[in-house]
Amino acid sequence: MKRERTPNQYKDSCKITVYSFLGIMMLMLFMLASTFAQAQQESKFKKSVKKTVKYSTFYGAINGGNSLSDVDVFSVTNGLQTATVKTPFDYSVSFGVRKIARLGYENRANVFYDGTEKSYSDAATVGKVKGFEFLLEGELARQQGISFINQHHFLRYVANNWIAKVEYLQDGFADIQYFEASERYRHRVGNKLSFNIGAVQRLAEPYGYDPLEEWMLSNGNLHYTDLAIQEGYTAEFDGIGGVTYLDPAGSEVATSTEIWEGVVVPQVLANYTERKRDELQQTLQHSVVIGFDFYHYTKTFWVHSWGNLMPYHYNNGGEFSYHKYNDGQWLDYSGGLIFGWKLNKSLGCFVEGKYNKYWNRAWHDFSVGVNYVIF
């Protein structure tokens, strides 16, 4: 059950976002300083820094709009009653800096960056040019009354024979969040295709951990009543078959078992599982990665594809290791495809998308379409 966070939880999430963004910025500055530590003269250092940050863009933007229309909800429990459910307006606050060379098929749609731009190629292992590229992007948003945070930061260096990348991703809708660093050997096959192999380190919450497992009965049912009592909920019986359920603050939350089980208990379980997961420290996962990247472009036909497979993960025997929940090894993978074909002057088609699956949690985006221009 996905729920909107409390104000304090959302405030804490915002703090984490700011701290993560500042941490990435500090890491980028550290990498820049390390890269140019050998510069002997101040003029050379300035030229090196200018070359590295040249063509990068800093941006911040606020976007908003109306959300779902008001909905009338009717009740006949105590006579006809009508309530109106209002959904607050949607908004997003975006901020970031990016330096990523545009590939041949990419066009700059707007004069300014407004934070709504989405480029599938940002997820590719290899960019258009060799050298240092980076993306630092954060978003605070509310959609259909649900507040969430999105972040995507990475620092990438691509050379002829090796690739290094540090990345942080938080997708509020997909409920996935992790740090990742990878070091890979790169083998080029011509100018379009390359293969890579190396190691990946990922820092994330212990995915697979189920806080409700200890409350499961032998028959497979959940002992939710004892769990709710432990969380501070109480039930008061009037002696004639009626019952009133109270929350930890003593406020009435339900006057029937149906409402208790159908409305309150799901919220209790959601609060409990989120709290228990937040109490755990993040785990470090070491994995082997194998990947490829292919890029071909002409003005009428282009293909850009990439993929990453992690077939082996080191088991450190930790209490919350994913090996324990998965009963052994598993496959994590990600990939993307960008395809475009202008069949003639008027007709063209395209396919764009990316897919990720880490710790059996999947998130993806795609777009398919046809364009026909009448001259």
Keywords:
375 residues; 12-stranded antiparallel beta sheet; 3-stranded antiparallel beta sheet; disordered N terminus
Describe what this molecule looks like in 3D:
The protein has helices spanning 7-35, 42-53, 224-230, 257-279, 322-326; strands at 57-65, 71-75, 81-85, 90-99, 131-143, 146-158, 162-171, 176-189, 193-204, 234-237, 243-246, 252-254, 283-297, 301-313, 332-342, 347-358, 361-372. With 375 residues, the protein is of the alpha+beta class. The protein has two domains: 7-208 and 284-290, no CATH class; 213-279, no CATH class. The strands form three sheets. A twelve-stranded antiparallel sheet has the order 1-4-5-6-7-8-9-13-14-15-16-17, covered by helices on one side. Strands 10-11-12 form a three-stranded antiparallel sheet. A two-stranded antiparallel sheet has the order 2-3. The radius of gyration is 26 Å and the shape is globular.
Radius of gyration: 26 Å
Elements, N to C (H/E): HHEEEEEEEEEHEEEHEEHEEE
Structural shape? globular
**Uncertain spans:** 1-5
Arithmetic mean pLDDT: 84
Query: Helical element count?
Result: 5
* Share in β-strands: 35-45%
Query: How much helix is in the residues?
Result: 10-25%
Main beta sheet strand tally, sense and closure: 12 strands, antiparallel
- How far apart the termini lie comes to 51 Å
